[in-house]
Please model this.
Amino acid sequence: DVKVTQSSRYLVKRTGEKVFLECVQDMDHENMFWYRQDPGLGLRLIYFSYDVKMKEKGDIPEGYSVSREKKERFSLILESASTNQTSMYLCASSTRQGGNGNTIYFGEGSWLTVV
Amino acid sequence: LAKTTQPISMDSYEGQEVNITCSHNNIATNDYITWYQQFPSQGPRFIIQGYKTKVTNEVASLFIPADRKSSTLSLPRVSLSDTAVYYCLVGDLYNFNKFYFGSGTKLNVKP
Model:
């Protein structure tokens, strides 16, 4: 089974703090994603990466940055956390090969509260 | 990108068959239809995927008519543990970054 592991399930941070959310996948997937999920808004893509050191902005990149130094690891960084970044963050991965049966695999989520 | 429309919520009782329909009028030739299930405080997980006609696995069936403008996820004999949000996604399988998740359908299974 594909495993996408997010390092922290629950975090509480103060406004202005720098926050790192870490994600590791064990399936040698090329693509990795960071989403946030808020009630009534579904999942929204923040950033994705299709290869090491490569990144592309998603729908809501403002206030976030990402790092992908190794293929299996994708980090989401909040340079200066704000209360409107309180949310559940989901990491995901997929292959780049396409074709029937290809899908995206999600981690368990990280609940971030900024106070 | 093909947007999808699905009911916001549905109620059912244990043991019933549940059918959730998704509308995707602008589906493209290369697009597949994929359904995910999400329990509270967990990430979505893959249920089933198809391109046309009918697909069945150990969890669900997916019915896709010839024009592919809609699809129906069928859950046989639901139990309380099937209470979750179900998402219908449409897109080619090379560009998951373009998948639109929306709000899904909240299925509430009652005893």
Q: What stands out?
A: Chain B touches chain A at residues 32, 34, 41-46, 49, 51, 87, 92-94, 96-97, 99, 101-104 (CB under 8 Å).
